[in-house]
Amino acid sequence: MEKKMEDVGDDYFYELLSRFHTKEQLRMLIEINNNLNIKELRDMPHLRGKLCISELENVVNIQDARVGGLKLKHNLESLVIRWNSRSDYPGELEFDASENERNQLNVLDSLQPYSNLKKLSIQSYDSPIFPHWIKDAEFSKMVKLRTYPSGLPSL
Fold this sequence. Notes:
alpha/beta
């Protein structure tokens, strides 16, 4: 009998997470339960390789992003941080661009990764300001930094 995530409970789910060491294994688990909250990254100490965090426009509590503890993920080599673009929501009538930019800056600031990161891609980021950590000398090992759209200010 096949079990669904809602049938096994959180404790079992987190026990499973602690056993995964490859991105293929983790991708398979996340496809099973795609309702993960960003703060649940704190319970994934063995993440390694590449991680993509998307739909960041849904982060309501900045503390959730900070609690995720990317700074403690020493084995991450590549990180993709992605917001959906505003054009994905053409029906949004009341859009406050400055509030959106502030929120994106706060979320990105809270997602500071471990300094050994080699590749960072930031997608659909609307703020003209980058957080201080991205310019820090600690990140001198980073060999590739990509931003989409390419119209963002230079570092």
